[in-house]
Amino acid sequence: MDYASFLKAADRGEAPPVTLLHGAEAFLIDDAVSRVTHALFADVSDPTLLKETFDAKEAGAESVVQAALMLPWGSARRLVVARGVEDLTAKQGEALAVYVRAPNPSTVLLLLAGQALTAAHWLMQAMPSGSSVAVAPLVGRQLIGWLRARARTDGFELDEAAAELLADLSGNDLTRLRGDIEKAALAGGPDNRRVSVAEVRAVVGEHRLHHIFELTQALAARDTGTALRLLELLLNAGEDAFGVLGMLAREVRALWQAAEGLRLGRSEEDIARALRRPPHAAAALIDRARVMPPSEPARLLTRCWDVERRLKLSGSTRPEVSLLVADLCAG
Predict the structure, then answer these.
(1) Whole-angstrom Cα distance, residue 65 to residue 235?
(2) How far apart are CA 79 and CA 53, in angstroms?
(3) What predicted TM-score, i.e. pTM, was given to this entire model?
(4) Which among 127, 129, 188, 300 could bridge 192 via Cys, Cβ 3.0 to 4.6 Å?
(5) DSSP state of 85
(6) Distance CA 40, CA 47 (A)
(7) How far apart are CA 149 and CA 25, in angstroms?
(8) What distance in Å separates the CA atoms of residue 247 and residue 231, rounded to the nearest whole number?
């Protein structure tokens, strides 16, 4: 069974008697537990006596099995959740291996492993066919689809383009993405429930600052791949190309200043004070200037001015700025 099929069964209140959920995406595993809980006990005011959660390693497999064998009281089914089952050895998990072959039909037992298990793991071999669910990180269209579905569950309508922009800005950190959806909705007003690109761009300030800082770090490290990826994120988020060009020119100007200071025989402390940069940032610029050919900083600065002129004439911003970033990393 795959994760989506398991959730559909869980939402119908038809979760199997035993399921192993394994993978490193903790948010998705916790979300599955929440949905199983809600579906099983939607009409129960206090499910305390109907749900038990264990740390498998600490409690032991026998305690988990004993809880799973108990009959429900005041409800059709019980829920038993065992976390950290991957930490049990085959010997320690013998009681579980026996139980899963003939589980109590009135109990839903969720075995949770915080890492992907291989087919050779004793638990994967013990589980009945179709009862192991891999919980893999979401990527690409899967992530976009999940974001929009999650937004609907939380009462928001998330446009596809807005979901794509959020994924570009926040990566695949699901907890952060969910919080960003709520922040973007609030940007449209206290009663707003629709999130478009406009709302997302209204709250990307913190992402913008972070990406600009990372871009300057990538330039200093001459990491072309990372620098181009960050440039793409900034432009996709609506950052003005001339603004990005201005930032790049400032970095090159600082590099030129550091090179001039070294040429004139100034101390590193004097150069750092003139640059008005934090010590580690100034040191990185000075180190790079020291190993560059004497004419290179001036060439790169002229290159920035040349790109600005061409942008004003052609309007083809992305290719020009991308080539400049690649040139700055290579210089």
Answers:
(1) 54
(2) 8
(3) 0.63
(4) 188
(5) G
(6) 9
(7) 17
(8) 11
The amino acid at residue 124 is: M
Helix (H) or strand (E) holding 83: strand 78-83
Task: Report the relative pairing of strands 51-55 and 157-158 from DSSP bridges.
Answer: unpaired
- What confidence category does residue 6 fall into, taking pLDDT thresholds of 50, 70 and 90? very high
Out of 101-105, 125-129, 271-275, pick the least confident.
271-275
d(CA 255, CA 23) in angstroms, rounded, equals: 46
Q: For the segment 264-296, what is each residue's pLDDT rounded down to a tens digit?
A: 999 988 888 888 777 777 888 898 888 888 889
How do beta strands 78-83 and 107-113 pair?
parallel
Amino acid at 67: A
Alpha helix positions (H), the chain: 3-11, 26-40, 56-59, 61-69, 94-99, 122-126, 140-153, 160-170, 174-187, 197-202, 205-221, 224-236, 241-263, 268-275, 279-291, 296-314, 317-330
Contacts of 300 (CB under 8 A, 6+ apart): 252, 255, 256, 327, 328, 331
Token reading at 331 = 């210089």
Q: In angstroms, how far is CA 59 from the centroid of its own chain?
A: 32
Distance CA 100, CA 123 (A): 10
pLDDT in tens, 192-250: 899 998 888 777 665 665 677 788 888 878 889 998 988 888 887 777 788 788 888 88
Question: Which H helix or E strand runs over 78?
Answer: strand 78-83
How many CA atoms does the CB half-sphere of 242 hold within 13 Å? 7
CA geometry: angle at 247 spanning 201 and 241, to 5°? 50
DSSP code of residue 170: H
The answer to whether the CB of 127 falls within 8 A of the CB of 100 is yes
Relative orientation angle of helices 241-263 and 224-236, to the nearest 10 degrees: 140
